[in-house]
Design brief:
CATH class of the largest domain: Mainly Beta
Number of strands: 8
Number of domains: 2
CATH topology of the largest domain: Porin
Radius of gyration: 38 Å
Helix content: 10-25%
Order of helices and strands: HHHEHEEEEEEE
Number of helices: 4
Strand order of the largest sheet: 1-2-3-4-5-6-7-8
Length: 235
């Protein structure tokens, strides 16, 4: 009887030690990370990975911030009011320099040269008008970083006006010519509406309608400019 009890007690102790060793081995594997990763663990890892949208990570998105731009533009300018009664459509070239001060705000400086022709051709009388706009503007860009980006803006600055008139007439066989010209510098504003179209990471097509209001003495001189050209991003 004593031998039987001793044998059973010894068997119980050996079994307990074996189970305890197995538990320790499994615990060490879990701590060491040797066990396979579960489906839930994989989901938690992927959910914590930061995946930014393309318009933020590519060169057409957040990289617009603090970026410089330069644009070369052509222009057709339609005169209005009494100014439109005297001259015809003007044509010009412009250069624009811009800097993104915020993700949607483009600060820009533009300089151009617009020359107008005669409204009607009168024998013996010639006239010409031109102006040089030097404007500081701010454009608000919608959907920055997308392929199509409309914008609205306002520019203020100075218009360097120049005009000339030449009259030719004949009296008693003598031809006389009288010429007058002048220049002036006036303040003006130019609300604008347009869009940029991204054709590559560094080149944009730009189309702008710009309403020039020049505060000349006694009245205002107004004209609508349609500007089209290319804008280049400088990295």
């Amino acid at each position: 009887m004593r031998r039987t009890l001793f044998f059973l007690l010894s068997l119980f102790l050996v079994s307990s030690l074996s189970i305890n060793a197995q538990m320790k081995l499994q615990l060490s594997q879990e701590i060491a990370g040797d066990r396979p990763t579960s489906f839930m663990d994989n989901n938690l890892e992927s959910n914590f990975k930061l995946e930014l949208p393309p318009e933020v990570t590519n060169s057409a998105g957040n990289e617009f911030l603090n970026m410089w731009f330069i644009a070369i533009l052509a222009d057709a300018t339609l005169p209005f009011g009494s100014f439109g009664d005297a001259v015809s459509t003007g044509f010009s070239a412009h250069a624009m320099f811009g800097y993104m001060i915020a993700r949607s705000l483009l600060l820009n400086l533009s300089v151009g040269y617009v020359t107008f022709g005669e409204k009607e051709s009168i024998e013996g009388f010639d006239q010409s008008w031109s102006w040089i706009p030097v404007l500081l503007g701010l454009n608000y860009v919608f959907n920055p970083g997308r392929k199509f980006m409309p914008f609205i803006g306002l520019a203020v600055g100075l218009y360097l006006l120049r005009w000339s008139q030449t009259s030719t007439y004949t009296i008693l066989g003598q031809t006389q010519t009288i010429s007058e010209d002048g220049s002036d510098t006036e303040f003006g504003i130019a609300p604008r509406l347009g869009a940029y179209y991204l054709i590559s990471a560094a080149i944009l097509l730009t189309l702008t309608a710009e309403y020039n209001m020049i505060f000349t003495s006694g009245s205002s001189t107004t004209a609508l400019g349609i500007l089209f050209g290319l804008m280049f991003a400088l990295r």
